[in-house]
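Archive entry: two folds, one per protein. Generate the first.
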Amino acid sequence: MTEDLVRDERITAIGLLSEVLSGLTAQFSAQIAEHGLALIEFEVLIRLARSSDCRLRMTDLSAQTSLTTSGVTRVVDRLERDGFVCRTACPTDRRSSYAVLTEAGRERLGAILPGHLETIDRLFTGLLPAEQLGPMMAGLRTIRDAVRPGATAGATSTAA
């Protein structure tokens, strides 16, 4: 092992990304938990809210999140039990179903989002000037598309 490899900027870049992600995840988890939801439940709700007609096929929801199809089923089961989502059958494919955001789900998001946006601004977007934020977001999309090609499955272009 050489010192050059250990000090490679690529190692630094991925380390910084990992540290930022774990720090933000901890902050977001705590803020979301104040509203009685786990971070993954919030992620499902926000992805539904940002999708056309506030609904996504369960398979697309799995592709957009870090969840397996069975993991999505469990999360949607919990959200459905709490009245935040409902399931509807796909009219063109009997094998598929949609998760749909309910009015109660919209209300829960409405309660969470002001504090969540404040946290995002305080710890992420608000720390960067616009001339840095735009290119960073473009770069993150490029990387996301390479490592998670299904991450925008079923999404509208503005929500991607």
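Generate the second and append.
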Amino acid sequence: MRIYVTSVFVDDQEKALDFYTRVLGFQKKHDVPLGGPRWLTVVSSEEPDGTELLLEPDGHPAAGAYKKALVADGIPATSFAVDDIAAEHGRLTGLGVRFTQPPTEMGGVTTAVFDDTCGNLIQIVQL
């Protein structure tokens, strides 16, 4: 068994696509119209056949409450691995990304957390 797709709830799919591709460097994999919201996925440019991230609309009432609760408690919606967290933090900060936690050593890993502009906190991790 493998993970095929995972998702983050976003408040605007077009804005999310721009952020996740232009800023984070992912590439669009699928963009299927569904009569309003789309089946819109991105993948790592380093692993184009890897796990897809669904940019899922947060229209369901539970999704909005879930996102707000996570952000209020400072909990990231998901986590992405990076090879050099200091370099990635610098690159993203230079692009205007707002970090809620700078790179911080945490027992063998270093993590940082940023706002994805779509209602989520996202963690990056250097193992």
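Annotation attached to the second fold: The longest strand covers residues 99-106. The chain is about 25% helix and 40% strand.
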